[in-house]
Amino acid sequence: QVQLEESGGGLVQAGGSLRLSCAASGRTFSSAAMGWFRQAPGKDREFVAGIGRSGGSTDYADSVKGRFTISRDNAKKSVYLQMNSLKPEDTAIYYCNRRVPAPAYWGQGTRVTVSS
Length: 116
Known about the structure:
By secondary structure, this protein is mainly beta. It has no helices and 10 strands. The strands form 2 sheets. The chain has a 6-stranded mixed sheet, with no helix packed on it. It has a 4-stranded antiparallel sheet with strand order 1-3-8-7, with no helix packed on it.
């Protein structure tokens, strides 16, 4: 069983940066590909970025490619999302989960608000 807790969200102006963190508990973290997802007001949750078990492979949604960077530290059981050049359309609640999401692993998320 894995529990995930996101942090690092906040209010930032367009063009600014934030770094999100996801702390995991449980023994299986290092064996799982992980991902970041987001849900904007009135919209469905969508994929943002994914990272392989060792961190050697990553993939991104087209909307964030070149601006966001996902990374992980298996020793700390953590996944990170560095977000640069933020845009108002990045405003959402951000969640981490397995790259193929497990319904039971959704946490509370962390809110990111980008003002124009």
